[in-house]
Amino acid sequence: MTTSPSPPAPSSSRSIGASGSSLPQWRLWLSTLNWRRDPGYEERKIQHEQRMKQLRNETEQLRQENKRLAELESRMDALLRNADSCSQTPPGTGSS
Q1: Contacts of 28 (CB under 8 A, 6+ apart)
Q2: What span, in angstroms and rounded, lies between the C-alpha atoms of 87 and 18?
């Protein structure tokens, strides 16, 4: 009876080669996809930051405008109350 050699036991580590053996698994996976960074990412990021700054400025302008309008409305209300109190005739002084 002849015995054939048994196949080698599977290794728990993958044979990747000398250049890729030190890379984490996810980096190896990305390299298989030939992954590249989005070339427009930085430009869009800068545009986004500029837009956010513009929105903050516009928001602050709106707050200041609302405050100014509230002050004007308060003054108008005070003037109207003053005008109403001056235009009312005191009781008993009306002509009969």
Answers
A1: 16, 20
A2: 97
User: pTM of this prediction?
Assistant: 0.47
The SS3 assignment for 84 reads helix
DSSP string, 65-85: HHHHHHHHHHHHHHHHHHHHH
- Pull the structure tokens for residue 39: 């070339």
3-state secondary structure of 44: helix
Tens digits of residue pLDDT in 39-80: 899 999 999 999 999 999 999 999 999 999 999 999 999 999
**What are the backbone angles phi and psi of residue 63, rounded to the nearest 5°?**
-60, -45
Q: What sign results for the dihedral spanned by CA atoms 16, 21, 25, 26?
A: negative
